[in-house]
Design goal:
Elements lengths: L1 H6 L4 E4 L14 H10 L3 E4 L21 H9 L3 H14 L4 E4 L10 H10 L6 E3 L5 E3 L6 E4 L2 E4 L8
């Protein structure tokens, strides 16, 4: 992982896992990563305010997202905690090349997809995804997303639940 990150010019990794540990890959536990990444010349920071697995009560305005957990996270993205986490991420990214990681390997099945949408559409930030082969791909925002002021709402064409 360190070689992949370094090859892409990443200077710091921001971990957005709600529970930053792994039984399957113990080297990716927060307690381990905060040691071996800096030893490889890459900073590490856990950002719990951007973690997934959020539960928002009540009806969701984000009817364009078919996944319940994505709808919940989209609702959470309108919170002060999320905004503060994003502000800190962007402040860090102003000074160094930053990558965001979670437990899900592919970004389009992870809440990182929604974070990337927010950064690109609301904050006007260039977002690229680092693939397993080391290639960087520009983020293409979710079609159902709509900017309303300084928030993102996923109320485009409704998609049938899985």
């Amino acid at each position: 992982m360190a070689a992949l990150l370094a090859g892409a010019g990443v200077q710091s990794l921001v971990d957005v896992r709600s529970a930053p540990g792994s039984r399957r890959n113990p080297d990716t536990a927060r307690d381990e990563m905060q040691h071996w990444l800096p030893a490889a010349g890459i900073g590490y920071r856990w950002e719990p305010r951007l973690g997934g697995w959020r539960r928002v009560k009540g009806p969701s305005a984000d009817i364009g997202l078919r996944n319940d957990s994505f709808r919940s996270y989209a609702g959470y993205m309108r919170s002060e905690d999320f905004q503060a986490g994003i502000d800190e991420l962007l402040a860090q990214a102003a000074d160094q090349q930053v990558a965001v990681m979670c437990a899900e390997t592919v970004w389009w099945r992870c809440h990182r997809k929604l974070i990337a949408d927010y950064l690109a559409l609301v904050r006007g930030t260039e977002v690229r995804h680092l693939m397993h082969d080391g290639k960087l791909r520009d983020h293409r925002p979710t079609a159902e997303a709509r900017v309303a002021g300084d928030v993102l709402i996923y109320d485009g064409p409704a998609v049938e639940p899985e």
